[in-house]
Design goal:
Largest sheet: 4 strands, mixed
Order of helices and strands: HHHHHHEHEEEEEEHEEEEH
Number of strands: 11
Shape: elongated
Number of domains: 3
Strand content: 15-25%
CATH superfamily of the largest domain: DnaJ domain
CATH class of the largest domain: Mainly Alpha
CATH topology of the largest domain: Helix Hairpins
Structural class: alpha+beta
Amino acid sequence: MNHKDPYKILGVSRSSSRDEIKRTYRRLAKKYHPDRNPGNKDAETKFKEVQAAYEVLGDPKRRAQYDQFGSGGPRPDFQAWTSGGASPFEGIQFDFGDSGDLSSIFEQFFHRPGSRQRSRRASRRPLSRGANLEHVVELSFEEATRGTSREIRLSTGGPEGKTERIEFHIPAGVADNQRIRVKGKGHEGPGGRGDLMIHCRVKPHPYFRRDGNDILLDLPLSLVEAIRGAKIEIPTLDGITRVTVPSGTSGGTKLRLRGKGIQAQRGSKSGDMYVVTSVVVPKKITPGVSELLDALADELNQNPRQGLGWPQ
């Protein structure tokens, strides 16, 4: 039989401290947790092995007993060690289980037939919850920025395969590909229900763009508006507002509207709205416009490349 060493399962040495073992266990348990690896049987087996190994090495008394008896402790058909007399345990190995069910590992390790006591930790082992449910929700740009509520019907593995109506809230400011956890609305299990994981998909907006919690809006300007300046009505999430474009505005200038961005979720900062200007130059020039441009060029006498250090 292929026996497994708890030190090798956790990847720690026999001289590792208790804190080192605990840190390694937490990292591996997080890596192989079923919630992070839905449907992955290899990860599930690895998670159980990591749990079992830490049951031994995380407890100073059990670790000392394991170290004392070499590669393991007694199997169920051997007398369990006691605090008193000695028993010959030469050649006995602890089996970390290729038999499939790892929930009885520590009963095997600390329980002898007919004993009235079992490991306290084994008796307190929580029952596993049901698997999580996954569901994709499509949201408009406005729904994602303002928040919304949804109602869906899903099969949660209940009696007779009946579907359940589930209501949940999408908070304001949710981003594309963000996941929202609805607790206790997953599949049924011995230890209770799993969770419902909502995957949010936000549809693109025809003219708004998102950058973090900021909203960007492109604002095309005519040549005259860019030179003279203008007051222009633009859309925002709260409706139509008027923005002032200063005279002499170049393409790529950002005009800031404070507090007109996306409402902050917990732990983040609310955003602003930025109007990004672009100057639209006419493609066809009439003779009259050409004369006016010549006069304008003479009047302005402007060289925008002056001072760049380019070769002449």
